[in-house]
């Protein structure tokens, strides 16, 4: 079986999802091919209708904002939807251009993709429920993201902080959706007994976060990212909207507790007072209080660290997801596709 992943590169978790999925499928003997298209095609994805699938393609799998453009006669189409950016609650954190695009262009493309799909995958229950009015009954299901717990694993010996600053980590694009704008105030209130290392995510945009206890390191390699998780005492994740929350899961797999927003899909990943602490979105004071609590309670920090690793292993393993995905592909490839397609 051969699966083609044609994608408009977003420089976000959707790219991670596709790369991770393709790599896992290859381990199971499924041939995959990823084709990335420039981001400017987001404005007119229908221009991609002329691209032919690689020879031998049995399944096409793309993202919800552009999948309709890759529908081909006789080849089943799988569409993944990540997070409902059309949610009005997110509008205050968008630019005028983003609000216009999401409401009048992106929503139209996503609905077309759902219409032409033979299978729709949502990466969390939150995303599924948020888009339930658009998803086709019987064609949609939740398949959670997962993490390779052999690659993302705790350090052999975890250091308990004593006379050094309490090490915080932020992983993700430095955007308002991710809550990066809250980090300077959080760190200012915490003071010099705390230090934050912030990555710039996949977009490698260094929006300098000001603060004497903040260090922005840019985009990290895979091995350096794992090391950053392992060396951190806590992952700070103040995101306002997440379709899943890869950073939280990766940190947990490395035995690093998470302090995150109680919003969108994050509570499906982080269990409050078990694998970390959840705070009200935008509440800087609550984030500060939660981080200070973990610094001042090392036994609780160790307890959360152990529980985080266990949850990553037990709740988000790779094998069941890949086995179900392969079963979906086999079902679709066996029946072919007779749904509407673009000429």
- Taking the alpha carbons of the first and last residues, their distance comes to 25 Å
Structural class based on helices, strands and sheet pairing: alpha/beta
Query: Total helix count?
Result: 10
3D shape: globular
Write the CATH architecture name of the largest domain: 3-Layer(aba) Sandwich
Q: Which CATH first-tier class of the largest domain would you pick?
A: Alpha Beta
Mean pLDDT, all residues: 90
The SSE string, one letter per element, is: EHEEEHEHEEHEEHEHEHEHHH
Radius of gyration: 20 Å
Strand order in space, largest sheet:
2-1-3-4-5-6
Task: State the fourth-level CATH superfamily of the largest domain.
Answer: Glycogen Phosphorylase B
Strand content: 15-25%
CATH topology of the largest domain, what is it called? Answer: Rossmann fold
Condensed summary:
This protein is α/β, with parallel strands linked by helices. The protein has helices at residues 13-27, 96-116, 125-130, 183-190, 222-231, 246-253, 266-269, 284-296, 298-315, 318-335; strands at 2-8, 31-37, 59-63, 77-81, 119-122, 140-142, 166-170, 194-199, 214-218, 234-237, 258-261, 276-279. The protein folds into 2 domains: 2-146 and 317-334, Rossmann fold (3-Layer(aba) Sandwich), CATH 3.40.50.2000; 166-315, Rossmann fold, CATH 3.40.50.2000.
Notes on the protein architecture:
The model is unreliable at 336-343 (pLDDT under 50). The protein has two domains: 2-146 and 317-334, Glycogen Phosphorylase B (Rossmann fold); 166-315, 3-Layer(aba) Sandwich (Rossmann fold), CATH 3.40.50.2000. It is built from ten helices and twelve strands. It is of the alpha/beta class and 343 residues long. Helix 1 links the parallel strand 1 (2-8) and strand 2. It has helices at 13-27, 96-116, 125-130, 183-190, 222-231, 246-253, 266-269, 284-296, 298-315, 318-335; strands at 2-8, 31-37, 59-63, 77-81, 119-122, 140-142, 166-170, 194-199, 214-218, 234-237, 258-261, 276-279.
């Amino acid at each position: 079986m051969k699966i083609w992943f044609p994608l408009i590169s977003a420089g976000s978790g959707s790219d991670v999802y596709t790369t991770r999925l393709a790599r896992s499928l290859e381990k199971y003997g499924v041939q995959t091919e990823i084709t990335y298209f420039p981001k400017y095609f987001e404005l007119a994805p229908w221009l991609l209708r002329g691209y032919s699938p690689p020879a031998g393609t049995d399944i096409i799998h793309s993202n919800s904002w552009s999948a309709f453009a890759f529908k081909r006669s006789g080849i089943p189409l799988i569409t993944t939807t990540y997070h409902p950016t059309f949610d009005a609650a997110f509008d205050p954190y968008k630019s005028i251009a983003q609000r216009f695009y999401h409401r009048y262009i992106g929503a139209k493309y996503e609905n077309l993709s759902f219409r032409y799909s033979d299978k729709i995958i949502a990466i969390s229950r939150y995303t599924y429920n948020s888009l339930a009015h658009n998803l086709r009954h019987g064609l949609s299901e939740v398949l959670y993201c997962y993490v390779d717990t052999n690659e993302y694993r705790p350090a052999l010996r975890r250091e308990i902080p004593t006379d050094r600053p309490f090490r915080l980590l932020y992983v993700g694009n430095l955007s308002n959706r991710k809550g990066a704008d809250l980090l300077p105030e959080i760190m200012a209130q915490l003071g010099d007994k705390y230090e934050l290392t912030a990555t710039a995510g996949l977009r490698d945009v260094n929006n300098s976060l000001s603060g004497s206890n903040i260090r922005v390191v840019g985009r990290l390699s895979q091995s350096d990212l794992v090391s950053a998780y392992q060396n951190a005492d806590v992952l700070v994740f103040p995101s306002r909207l997440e379709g899943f929350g890869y950073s939280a899961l990766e940190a947990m797999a490395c035995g690093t507790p998470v302090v995150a927003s109680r919003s969108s899909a994050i509570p499906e990943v982080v269990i409050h007072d078990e694998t970390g602490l959840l705070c009200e979105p935008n509440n800087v004071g609550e984030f500060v209080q939660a981080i200070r609590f973990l610094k001042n309670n090392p036994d609780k920090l160790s307890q959360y660290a152990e529980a985080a690793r266990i949850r990553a292993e037990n709740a988000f393993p790779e094998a069941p997801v890949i086995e179900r995905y392969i079963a979906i592909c086999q079902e679709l490839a066996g029946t072919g596709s007779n749904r509407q397609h673009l000429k």
